[in-house]
Design goal:
Layout (H helix, E strand, L loop, with lengths): L5 H9 L4 E8 L5 E5 L5 E3 L2 E4 L5 E6 L8 E7 L7 H5 L7 E8 L6 E16 L2 E8 L42 H6 L16 H4 L19
Parallel strand pairs: 2-4
Antiparallel strand pairs: 1-2, 1-7, 3-4, 5-6, 6-9, 7-8, 8-9
Length: about 220
């Protein structure tokens, strides 16, 4: 539950116009930057929030359940902050973004955090930048670790595969099956799949469907 300072709550209820939005951005290298849609710079959360950058929110969508919320951020490309080289190097992608609603007329300013997420893809469009602002729940959709499947998850020729590009059959490619790894490349020791993993048909089969019920292995004999 968000805590709203009493004076800020009073300002919200009165309908005053001394409120602005602030965005505190923390990159993966630890650098922090502040932006605001107010008409002048001011300090907030230990960062100078810079005005007149065109930084602001665009369209926003929210989903029920655990689907990731998604919003957009837009702004001017400012060489003092948003350098092209840093954008191209990916320093801004994945940066943590805190959004705040701040009463700039208070001394000192008071505010409440309204959201938190991280930057997705950052791109340049006609001298400006556009970025996806992803809710933290989007991390649940990331694939972490290995996928257990019958086919190999390595790429032909990479370090995990180990087949050199000078192999006579390299140009024929690989469909990532165990048979191709064995017969075409003689590379079964480096096969990164699980060719003997049982399928759903076996997992869902009942004992009554087996002609022989002696406790032996299904599908592999013995």
């Amino acid at each position: 539950m968000r805590h709203v300072p009493d004076t800020l709550q009073a300002a919200l209820e009165s309908g005053v116009t001394s409120l602005c939005s602030c965005w505190i951005v923390t990159r993966s290298d630890g650098a922090r930057f502040g932006f605001t849609d107010h008409d002048r710079d001011f300090d907030w959360q230990g960062v100078t929030c810079r005005a007149r950058t065109g930084f602001g929110a665009s369209e926003c969508s929210a989903e029920s359940g655990l689907a990731p919320d998604q919003a957009g951020l837009v702004g001017a490309l400012d060489d003092r902050v948003l350098r092209d080289a840093e954008l191209e190097a990916g320093l801004w992608s994945g940066a943590l973004v805190e959004t705040w609603r701040v009463d700039w007329s208070a001394d000192p300013p008071e505010g409440v955090k309204t959201g938190q997420g991280e930057l997705g893809e950052v791109r340049r469009v006609d001298g400006r930048f556009e970025a996806e602002l992803l809710g933290l729940s989007h991390r649940l959709s990331r694939v972490t670790g290995r996928v257990f499947a019958r086919r190999c998850d390595a790429v032909l020729g990479d370090e995990r595969c180990g087949v050199p590009d000078t192999h006579p059959a390299f140009e024929q490619g690989c469909d990532q099956s165990f048979a191709t790894c064995r017969d075409r490349f003689a590379n079964t020791l480096n096969f990164r799949g699980f060719p003997y993993m049982v399928g759903n048909d076996v997992l869902q089969a009942s004992p009554a469907s087996e002609p022989v019920r002696d406790g032996g292995s299904r599908g592999l004999g013995g």
